[in-house]
Give the backbone structure.
Amino acid sequence: MPPKGHDKSIRRSIPGLASLPRPLYGRTESLPNRALTRRHSHPWVQLSYAIQGVLEIQTGVGRFVAPPARAVWIPAGMPHRVFSSPRTEMRSLYIDCSVTAWAAPRCHVLGVSDLLRELIRAFSQIPVEYDQSGPHGRLAQVILDQLAEAPQFDLMLPLPQDSRLKQIYQSLDLHPEQSTTLGHWSEQLGVTEKTLSRLFLRDTGLTFRAWRQRLRLLGALTPLEQGQRVTDVALACGYDSTSAFIAAFRQQFGETPGEFFR
């Protein structure tokens, strides 16, 4: 999740491109400070990727988180905002819709293999107006082939749409460590606990407990990637012990924090 006080982040500019110079266009940025872009959209697909740092893409339906070895696929015309942690090294791709007929028309998180990472690194070094019929054009095609085969990962927090659930979300986003129960929230909001449970399932597809755990664990990725101690991150996320946090992390991501960021 965007760090507390993310409204004080540096505002990133949005490239003023009328069209792409080639079907695959690379954008390289070094962002020493926490940064964000205003809500915007593109007439082309964007692969938001960083070889260092954690990115978060927020759309109207959810927050998509990409630590290194992950990237977020943003369809053409999708309004979104981009948040980045300090010391982020961006290697984003803009892709013309004419070469992405195979892609699902929704935002999702992709796995970036070692091969794809190195291909993107190499692509970031070539001229913008590369020869499409030469080696650089073939490199672009290999990248597109790799993207078409990239696995998808569930690193997304669904955002509730109900106004009462939004109040819960805003509170937990600022203070994920709080252990407020759904029963407490039902008293605060003047609705039954059963109603809130039903609304969470309807809006997010998750129970309140599973949704809150995902919010906490996705929010833990940035401090972990920046080298903070697992114990400190666990306590900041509301876990009573490091072992409980590691168990929940493994359940969510299939690996321990150390394995995930190795």
Observations:
- The chain has two domains: 6-153, 160-260.
- Confidence is low (pLDDT under 50) at residues 1-7.
- The first helix runs from residue 114 to 123.
- Residues 45 and 75 are 5 Å apart (CA to CA).
